[in-house]
Automatic annotation (TrEMBL):
It comes from the Eukaryota. It is found in: Endoplasmic reticulum membrane; Microsome membrane. Belongs to the cytochrome P450 family. Pfam families: p450 (PF00067). This is Cytochrome P450. GO terms for cellular component: endoplasmic reticulum membrane. The lineage of its organism: Eukaryota, Metazoa, Ecdysozoa, Arthropoda, Hexapoda.
């Protein structure tokens, strides 16, 4: 098995039985592991071979080839190959995991849910949660205090997504132990399966489905499914209209475009995909700005100027904060939520200008974290510098040097909403408070090894003072 890449004449990293190149997978985060692999091999050509246990996979390092895989030859790489089991667990049949024509059709139907018009419509909900966040900070901070910002920001994003995706007012600032938040945290921090079972499902998804293995804990799945069913029933009985994802999904269900199970699965993925990503982005951004007072002042000045121009924290104001967007993008560069993107090959694919064929079913990996920290593209790559995302600087770089939202037809569908959420959360903090490191601030930041997304290992403490 381990002679596969040598036989294909493809450079590879020497594997170790039985882990292949993922021996340290339970001690090292995916981000750190991928950057070690990338740095060891990036000068060996446009791609190199790896083994996940006994399974060969290919890591792509050349930006043009990455672009081809994501966009031009998308038909060869339409799926992620993530384990899901719709028959036994309808909640796992969401947009992120489903494949083929089913994905294509659902993506087309869901895309109108995320237009800028729809974002504007949902803005008042975001703003109201932002106001709760500001009030919470005022109570917590007083005349200055050390606070765990990851927790505060997570409450903000939970409430936003809870409200927009499920239509429930789960004020977690007042009720931190709400079931909604507990189950949300559980899905990320306390997955149903051990690392061994997750490895098995990754290697043998068909067998996993035959054995009827599910992805989520029974009680969490039941909770979210019931929540959606109850919300739909309540809204239909009481003719409730709200400006949120849920009402858009209900309208699709009533047109016959979605079943109840599919509606529940989509609101569930909006919650999962929208809560952790945006919350980590804001946390990391505050962390970086705490260490860089000059950038913090510039970001604050940009926020206050836009608020003054547009009469407060309005939709127009948050869309007129270019420097804040630069800070958000620079944070996404340093801390992409998904450090390695994957695609599964749908049919045999000959890599352009080579004799190498990627066989049907093999996975290719795109090392987003490593590319975004490669000094060839970003000089002094570990230094936070929002000027890199000035439009003039961005225009000079290859489009695949920034892949924090993915690329091509499977790019993040919630990009606009994620950005909006980060802008509102950060503008709320920066417009009222000054942040700085304190004795409990982790230096350097370490990443969780348990999570598939790039989460800080521990809580993140910062000193927060009113302006
Ligand atoms: C800062 C915030 C966010 C980041 C960094 C982020 C990142 C990503 C990434 C990297 C992907 C994979 C793209 C690929 O494979 O090419 C993705 C997919 C996805 N995201 Fe996001 N996301 C964010 C916010 C959101 C929000 C707010 C929602 C929903 C409300 C959302 C829903 C989804 C869905 C449904 C997919 C799967 C799309 C598909 O396969 O068609 N994301 N996201």
């Amino acid at each position: 098995k381990y002679s596969y890449w040598a036989r294909q004449n493809v450079p590879f990293i020497e594997p170790q039985f039985p882990y292949g190149n993922f021996k340290d997978g339970n001690k090292t985060s995916i981000a750190d592991l991928s950057i070690q692999q990338y740095n060891a091999m990036k000068d060996c050509g446009s791609f190199f071979g790896l083994y996940f246990f006994l399974q060969p996979l290919l890591m792509i390092t050349d930006l043009d080839l990455i672009k081809t895989i994501f966009i031009k030859d998308f038909n060869y790489f339409p799926d992620r190959g993530i384990y899901h089991n719709e028959r036994d667990e309808p909640l796992s049949g969401h947009l992120f995991s489903i494949e083929g024509n089913k994905w294509r059709s659902l993506r087309t139907r869901l895309t109108p849910t995320f237009t800028s018009g729809k974002m504007k419509m949902m803005f008042p909900t975001l703003k109201a949660v932002g106001d709760n966040f500001a009030e919470y900070l005022t109570n917590m901070v007083g005349s200055g205090a050390e606070i765990e910002v990851k927790d505060g920001v997570a409450r903000f994003t939970t409430d936003v997504i809870g409200s927009c995706a499920f239509g429930i007012e789960c004020n977690t600032f007042l009720e931190p132990k709400s079931q909604f938040r507990e189950f949300g945290i559980q899905v990320f921090d306390d997955p149903l399966h051990s690392g061994m079972v997750r490895m098995f499902l990754r290697l043998f998804p068909e067998l996993g489905r035959k054995l009827r293995i599910k992805v989520f804990r029974e009680e969490a799945a039941k909770f979210f499914h019931k929540l959606v069913a109850d919300t739909i029933a309540y809204r239909e009985t009481n003719s409730v209209e709200r400006n949120d994802f849920m009402s858009l999904l209900i309208a699709m269900k009533n047109k016959g475009d979605l079943t109840l199970d599919e509606t529940a699965a989509q609101s569930f993925i909006f919650f999962l995909a929208g809560f952790e990503t945006s919350s980590s982005n804001q946390t990391y951004c505050l962390y970086e700005l705490a260490f860089k007072p000059e950038y913090q002042e510039k970001a604050r000045a940009c926020v206050l100027k836009a608020m003054e121009k547009h009469g407060g924290l309005t939709y127009e104001a948050v869309n007129d904060m270019q420097y804040l967007d630069q800070c958000i993008n620079e944070t996404l560069r340093l801390y992409p939520s998904v450090p390695v993107l994957e695609r599964k090959t749908f049919q045999n694919y000959r890599i352009p200008n080579t004799d190498v064929i990627i066989p049907k079913g093999m996975k290719v990996q795109i090392p987003v974290f490593a590319i975004q920290r490669d000094e060839q593209y970003y000089p002094n790559p570990t230094v936070f510098n929002p000027d890199r995302f000035h439009p003039d600087e961005m225009a000079k770089r290859h489009m695949c040097t920034f892949l924090s939202f993915g690329e091509g037809p499977r790019i993040c569908i919630g990009l606009r909403f994620g950005m909006l959420q980060s802008r509102v959360g950060l503008a709320t903090v920066l417009s009222k408070y000054r942040i700085s490191p304190c004795s409990r601030t982790a230096i350097p930041l370490e990443f969780s090894v348990r999570s598939g997304v790039l989460q800080p290992k521990e809580g993140l403490w910062l000193k927060v003072e009113p302006l």
